[in-house]
Amino acid sequence: MSGAVHLTRLEERFGEAPAIEVARSGLRDVSDRAWIVGGAVRDAILGGDVVDVDIAFDGDVKEAARQIAADAGGHPFELSEDFETWRVVAHDGDWKVDVAALRADTIELDLRLRDFTVNAVAVPLAGGTPIDPTGGLHDIEAGVLRTCSDRSFADDPLRVLRAARFASRVGFEPEEQTVELARREAPRAAEPAGERQFAELAGLLSGPEPLAGLGILDRFGATAVVLPELAGLRGVGQSANHHLDAHDHTIEVLRRMLEVERDLPAYCGDAADAVAELLAEPLADELTRKDALRWAALLHDIGKPGTRTERDGWVSFLGHDSLGAEMITELCGRLRTSRRFASHLAAITRDHLVLGFMVRERPLPPRRVWEYLSRTAPQSVDTTLLTVADRMSAQGGGVPEEAILGHLELAAEMLEAAVAWEREGPPEPLLRGDEIAAETGIEPGPALGEAVSELEAAQYTGEVTDRAAAVAHLRAWAEGR
After folding, report:
1. Contact assessment for residue 221 and residue 215, using Cβ atoms and an 8 Å cutoff
2. Residues 245 and 346 grouped into a single domain
3. Enclosing domain of residue 164
4. Residue 232, Cα to own-chain centre: how many angstroms?
5. Average pLDDT of the chain, as a whole number
6. Measured between alpha carbons, how far is 375 from 353 in angstroms, rounded to an integer?
7. Same domain, 305 and 176
8. pTM score of the predicted model
9. Is 207 within 8 Å of 168 (Cβ atoms)?
10. Within this chain, do residues 308 and 293 fall inside the same structural domain, yes or no?
11. CA–CA distance, 66 with 57 (Å, rounded to integer)
12. Are 329 and 456 part of one and the same domain?
């Protein structure tokens, strides 16, 4: 693509971007000291929408951010003191502008200090010819990921993870020298702060091609450094029902999860639209429930190496669900995720085997449905979807196809019930705990807690529908305990 064509495409995409409009307006008096850099340039050349904009500024970045905010009505705040970066966000969230100080005497030298050539192209804020000292325009067109210098990974080992993230987000393929440089610095990939590692890994997993990103982490030799729990699954043999070791099984579960995401009606039936809405909900750490479910697919079996036993040729992983939940809590602590994210993943992992044990009981009586939902809520939908991907991963192994189909049918039925539970919650209790104690004589303590659960189950199944029936039911239940 010629320079003229690049310029035309850039201006077309920039002209449609509110963030660039407000940056040009707010910095109109100092536009000769400001450049659009990084992802906005790359995405525009690729023909994508420009939503967030990075500005390199030769001057007081705090004042520049305030000027943009004052002109456009946004909210300015310091994003990084170490890197002299300020962010301006629209009040309605429609645009975001980051303003960072030059890291060298000129924009050309600044660009040479960046991570990859595809991120090292700048365009004057007011418009004009792209500045491309490292050949980034060519690499963007070729879909090649190349470091700006031989010290790129050494200067910031987090870039080892960032390179893999690009594979899942943009689809660029690292060239061989970049691969070699990444391998050299991969042992240092866990040196950056945990939250920085998590941000890159989360971007990788939530991208359109997470499997490609994980493959590049492996090529770099970085998986064992930042996700040793995942790498520890390699070579862990499973039972005859599984045709893959624990690691390849995990990757297959993630692949199947992506398949489920793409065709929810095939696996969720009439509940598909409602499930899609729930998966799109924000969860924590700027991730949705769908994003978290991909993490669950990747980590749900990390307890297997620590629980593997073999006897008479039969392999067992008794307790790997509980151990896996504990390990996820530790892993999330290392990556400094939120407690909500950690507890969400741990709960899915702890309960991911439950539905599989219920398949032979079909059709499930209402009590069993209640038991499953009350145990797995509020992750019932998420956990059930994981079981679908987990069961599908056994296709081609020793599990009969009818067993897999039976599981999928049960999961579709359970998803409908889980959606209703999540939207409406369990039935409003007909009796409070103190009222149950007064009517039945049960003393406060564990037994009273069991009585509360019994009433909830009876209401859910329709066994009791009014207060008098609830009292009679609990009295009979208490006498028969």
Report:
1. no
2. yes
3. 143-222
4. 21
5. 92
6. 12
7. no
8. 0.90
9. yes
10. yes
11. 13
12. no
